[in-house]
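Hi R.,

As promised on Friday, here is the backbone we talked about, encoded as structure tokens. Could you run it through your design pipeline when you get a chance and send me back a sequence?
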């Protein structure tokens, strides 16, 4: 796991070379590569798997491709990176990415790699944080990268402009829980290394808040009243909402 600005990077490193999960921002590629080369290995980065299209996870793609890497992602990641994107919540437009930044191997439901003496299962989890999210499970080492389905210590960003929903997110977290066990190391999209216990608490929080909102909506409560009702209060000590302040976009 490599932490910096942007999304957490997962690494698989051995004699065959390096596989990276996500590539952070493009101005960080030199730093990322020099950290790998000085601390871990002089082997090249051969593969990059993007968990989703957001720029804090794909911004380094072009540099890494120019260094000889191949980028792999769900087909919707290529689709969204190919065209201008507007993210309503951020009120921000993202330009289409250059051709070399686009994933050249695309899958639909899942793909499996046999690399560095591990079986690496990649699953598309639809409509969770975006419509192109993947989770990546290193079955032999029992490590999972969740992308931004799970952001340890923060409330989720449900990017509705990119096709996500709270229901999709809940199903996605349940899928992760069905794959892992209490020994699994969880690399979340941002934040500290995590575990099954913390992820289960996260799921409880999501379901509880969703249910509270739903009940209020069914009682014709207005959006303003829902926002003012402070339904997240009991979770606020464990989850920040600093999405826009640090390490994102
Ligand atoms: Zn994201």
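Update: got your reply. Pasting your designed sequence below so it's all in one thread:
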């Amino acid at each position: 796991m490599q932490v910096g600005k942007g999304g957490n990077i997962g690494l698989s490193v051995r004699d065959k070379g390096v596989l990276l999960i996500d590539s952070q921002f493009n101005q960080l590629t030199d730093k990322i590569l020099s950290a790998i080369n000085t601390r871990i290995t002089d082997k090249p980065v051969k593969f990059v798997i993007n968990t989703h299209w957001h720029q804090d996870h794909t911004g380094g793609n072009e540099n890494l491709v120019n260094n000889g890497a191949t980028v792999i992602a769900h087909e919707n990641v290529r689709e969204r990176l190919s065209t201008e994107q507007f993210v309503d919540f951020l009120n921000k437009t993202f330009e289409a990415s250059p051709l070399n930044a686009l994933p050249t191997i695309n899958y639909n439901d899942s793909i499996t790699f046999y690399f560095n003496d591990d079986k690496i299962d990649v699953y598309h989890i639809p409509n969770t944080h975006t419509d192109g999210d993947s989770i990546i499970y290193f079955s032999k080492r029992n490590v999972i990268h969740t992308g931004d389905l799970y952001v340890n210590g923060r409330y989720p960003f449900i990017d509705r402009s990119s096709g996500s929903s709270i229901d999709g997110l809940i199903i996605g977290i349940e899928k992760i829980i069905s794959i892992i066990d209490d020994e699994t190391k969880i690399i979340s999209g941002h934040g500290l290394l995590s575990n099954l216990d913390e992820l289960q608490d996260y799921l409880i929080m999501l379901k509880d808040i969703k249910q509270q909102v739903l009940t209020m909506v069914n009682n014709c409560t207005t959006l303003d009243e829902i926002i003012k009702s402070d339904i997240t209060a009991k979770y606020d000590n464990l989850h920040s909402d600093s999405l826009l302040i640090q390490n994102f976009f």
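One thing I noticed while checking it: The pocket of zinc ion is lined by residues 52, 54, 129, 148 (CB under 6 Å).

Thanks again,
M.
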